[in-house]
Amino acid sequence: MNINSPKDSQVPPVHQLDDTAGVPNRRWYVAIVGRNTEKACRERLTALGYESYVATQMETRVWRTGQKKQVERVLISNLLFTHVTERERLEIVKLPYINYFMTDKSGRTNDFGRHPLAIIPDSQMDMLRFMLYHADSPVTFTSERLRLGDHIRVVRGQLSGFEGYVAKEGNQTHLVVRIDFLGSALVSISPDDLEKIV
User: Fold this and answer.
1) Nearest-CA neighbor of 28 among 94, 108, 89?
2) Which among 38, 127, 170, 187 could bridge 135 via Cys, Cβ 3.0 to 4.6 Å?
3) Same domain membership, residue 127 and residue 79
4) CB 137 within 8 A of CB 149
């Protein structure tokens, strides 16, 4: 797949305004891209003026030589989130490095038998981004539908103030953020750092 497309040099499109409110009606859509191209695609879309996000976390890798290096690890392969209007999305889907946009298979089909596009709520994207930026330990992602427990707030550490749900796996306590259509992001956390929200 050619990431260096001449189409990338286009002038960023004018943002469409929502007629009812006079402000851009942007939503988080999920674009499917080639494996190991997520960050490059994000940079291309950003250069075109589109807000885009790849779920990544910085981690330290140690090479065989003993050298340590900070690298940006992609948490969810093949996915790129774009916060755009429907008009902008229709332009983005034409780019050669965007395969297609994810659909909501549980949604009602239209007259042509097509499912609606998957849209991630702003609140879920905000929580995912906050978790990935502030977590002290590696975040994992599972596509399994976890049975989420109590609604909690973190009271200590880098994630202090963060709200999410708690899940237990053996002796491990995890802070969980559910992302519609995709699954859940999990990070290990001490139960002592949590308080239940009533």
Assistant:
1) 89
2) 187
3) no
4) no
Please identify which residue in the block is written with the tokens 């409110």.
21
Q: Which domain holds residue 152?
A: 122-196
Gyration radius of the chain's alpha carbons? 19
One domain, residues 100 and 165 = no
User: Exposed, middle or buried: residue 176 (CB in 10 Å: 0-12, 13-18, 19+)?
Assistant: buried
Partnered with residue 154 across adjacent β-strands are 194
Residue 30 CA to residue 51 CA, distance in Å, equals: 12
Which residue type does 93 have?
Answer: V
In terms of Cβ atoms closer than 10 Å to its own Cβ (0-12, 13-18, 19+), residue 65 is exposed
For 7-35, how does the pLDDT look when each residue is reduced to its tens digit (9 = 90+)?
333 333 333 444 445 556 899 999 999 99
- Cα 86 to Cα 92: distance, rounded to the nearest angstrom: 10
